[in-house]
Design a protein that fits this description.
Elements: E1 3-6, H1 12-23, E2 27-32, H2 36-45, E3 49-53, H3 59-73, E4 78-81, H4 96-124, E5 127-132, H5 135-139, H6 145-165, E6 170-175, H7 190-199, H8 208-219, E7 230-231
Parallel strand pairs: 1-2, 1-4, 2-3, 4-5, 5-6, 6-7
The structure holds NADP nicotinamide-adenine-dinucleotide phosphate.
Length: 239
């Protein structure tokens, strides 16, 4: 059984990824930060899901999480950097505190978890890292400059790291979802959803399962020759 760590596995896309991998006979470590009740509920549903609390922006907590994983499972085969936060507002109004909060989770979180996971992967000459970015990291969003910046940085990190660790047989890829129905987009109005949907060739908002299915494929041996790629399930919204 392969071990997969899913950050931000308590809600939304991460939760769907946890379900997908648990149902496909992976041993899943579900990382969460604040949603303990939700994490317990998921872990109780599967014998092969273990929960582990850590704020991914906090290096000490991430190191403790990796020590826990090492003691309990030995190593991880697949790291899925999914935990993320967003905020909207004019660039001019973004405080340094808010900027740092977004970079802390969306970018430093990926750095922290990836740096902790890599030594073991390099030693074993095997591993897969899947980073969850966003279409906004590809094309940028007005009113979401900080979020777009953090997600674009994750794309850059994915490409550069894929080159660096490819010789160690480690694949690093990025999923850049379009709009997906989760808590993250819960403050969009119905009119905003209608407006966005009208711009999507497939005519619908994406589901968390759309992203989880792609993550499962990228983690599988069928995707062993894919690295450094940004794959964007977005219904044709961004082509
Ligand atoms: P969500 O429903 O708001 O869930 C966010 C998840 O991230 C939660 O499980 C949360 O855990 C976790 N998280 C947040 N801060 C954390 C921290 N400091 N440490 C550990 N975990 C933390 O969001 P989502 O829509 O599923 O988003 C998941 C990923 O997809 C994010 O990276 C997001 O940027 C990306 N994405 C989403 C969309 C979309 O339309 N929804 C589109 C493109 C990309 P707790 O609740 O336990 O704190």
């Amino acid at each position: 059984m392969k071990n997969v760590l899913v950050t931000g596995g308590s809600r939304g896309i991460g939760k769907a990824i946890v379900y997908k991998f648990a149902q496909n006979e992976y041993n899943v470590i579900l990382n969460y930060n604040t949603s303990e009740t939700a994490a317990i509920e998921i872990a109780n549903a599967f014998p092969n899901v273990t929960m582990c609390k850590a704020d991914v922006s906090n290096r000490e907590e991430v190191s403790e999480m990796f020590s826990f994983i090492k003691n309990k499972f030995g190593h991880i085969d697949i790291l899925i950097n999914n935990a993320g936060v967003s905020s909207t507002g004019l660039f001019q109004d973004v405080t340094l505190e808010e900027w740092n909060r977004l970079m802390g989770v969306n970018l430093n979180g990926v750095f922290n978890c990836t740096q902790e996971a890599l030594p073991e992967m390099i030693a074993r000459k095997s591993g897969k890292i899947i980073n969850i970015s966003s279409v906004w990291g590809m094309v940028g969003a007005s009113n979401e400059v900080a979020y777009s910046t953090s997600k674009a940085a994750v794309i850059g990190m994915t490409k550069a790291l894929a080159k660096e660790v490819g010789p160690s047989n480690i694949c690093v890829n990025c999923i850049a979802p379009g709009i997906i129905m989760t808590d993250m987009v819960s403050d969009y109005t119905l009119e905003e959803f209608d407006e966005i949907t009208s711009q999507i060739p497939l005519g619908k908002i994406g589901s968390t399962t759309d992203i989880a299915s792609l993550a499962l494929f990228l983690a599988s041996n069928d995707a062993n020759y894919i690295t450094g790629q940004v794959i964007s399930p977005n219904g044709g919204w961004v082509i």
